[in-house]
Amino acid sequence: MLYVLTCADISAVGPGVLNPWKQGLLTGLYKRAKSVLSGENENLEKERFDGVYNLVAEQADSEDEKNWLRNKVETLPCSYCESHSPETIAARLNEIRRVNPREAICEISRLEKSKLYEICIGKVSSRRTGIFYKITGMLSSLGLQIRAADIKPMGDSLVFYWIQFEDKQFSKPNPARYADIKRRALDLVLEVDEDPPKFPAKWQKEESPALKLSRPEIRVKIDNETVSSATIIDVFAYDKSGLLYKLTKKLHRLGLDVTYARISTYAHQVIDVFYVTDEQGNKIRNRNQLQLIKNELLQATRNFLEPPDSSDT
Question: 26, 81, 122, 213: which could form a disulfide with 105 (CB 3.0–4.6 Å)?
Fold first, then answer.
């Protein structure tokens, strides 16, 4: 009942507020909470995904391909495996399998029963964050709102990028626009285009005193306890085009790999969540380094959102 009431409450705020991404988060929380409170077998989730993995492997034409598919599908995000058919997953994995170091695969499609689009990229690379922040900047500069991102190393130097975004500028699919996005993404991944993104200036009304007072405090929180494989960084701020690009670029310059990201916006507020590791794939444990990361991100966010008034200097 709490799950239903929460969905109803968010939906009542206004049209489109309860989007598929937020509903997916609530549904995931509900399922996990139900599993814990009901005492269900913890292995049920693993058994369910094992079934999906086996179905993907069954799409193979040979035993060698079957073993390869079974091995690689386990590295993909669980939510990706839930939202795609075994046939689609197998076909995409085989495309990635054929990629050489001078190539990449890139596909853009609309998620079924959703307003969200996905961009899937497969590449032979170990430079994960360098590509991620560039793709983030490119998508944001085109007015696309990134909702989630997974960056998964697949072994054999293969990396899989899965980024979900919303395109509020067009109510219907625009094939020409998405073909252009695909071209831009490939240019960035293959390092053909190294130019920084340009964010269009927008004329906005001056903020009212009430809106300024409602701005959330700019905060950076670091969680090193929740998961064993990564350090979690939460950035709380108010939204502005280009903020996500600035944050991911700063993480890259700090020598961190982003393995997972979630971006949540509500009105003019934003919470960016990053799961990061060092360049060797380990969570950050040094206290001085953690404090440096927190300070650098906090300063970068403040400088971007509240730049010093040049007239005062």
Answer: 122
Query: CA torsion 277→88→51→70, rounded to 10°?
Result: -60
216 with 237: CB under 8 angstroms? yes
Domain count, the chain: 3
**CATH number of the domain to which 272 belongs:** 3.30.70.260
Answer yes or no: pTM beyond 0.85: no
Domain that holds residue 249: 214-306
Residue 13 tokens read as 């705020």
- Taking only the tens of pLDDT, the chain with its 313 residues reads 887 888 788 777 665 566 655 666 677 677 667 665 555 555 666 777 888 899 999 999 999 999 999 999 999 988 888 889 999 999 999 999 988 878 899 999 988 777 889 999 998 875 555 888 899 999 989 988 888 888 888 887 888 999 999 888 887 888 999 999 999 999 988 887 667 787 766 544 455 555 565 677 899 999 999 888 899 999 999 878 888 999 999 999 999 988 888 887 776 788 899 999 998 889 999 999 999 999 999 999 999 988 876 444 3
- Say whether both 167 and 237 belong to one domain: no
Chain-centre distance of CA 190, in angstroms? 20
Helix (H) or strand (E) holding 244: helix 243-253
Does any domain span residue 21? no
Residues 149 and 192 in one domain: yes
Report yes or no: 112 and 164 within 8 Å, Cβ to Cβ.
no
Would you say the C-alpha torsion 116, 117, 122, 125 has a positive or negative sign? Answer: negative
How many Å apart are CA 143 and CA 106, to the nearest integer?
20
Euclidean distance between CA atoms 268 and 124, whole angstroms? 38
| 25 is a domain residue | no
The CA-based diameter of the chain, rounded to the nearest angstrom, is 70
- 40: CB partners within 8 A, 6+ apart: 34
H-assigned helices in 99-241? 128-141, 175-189, 209-213
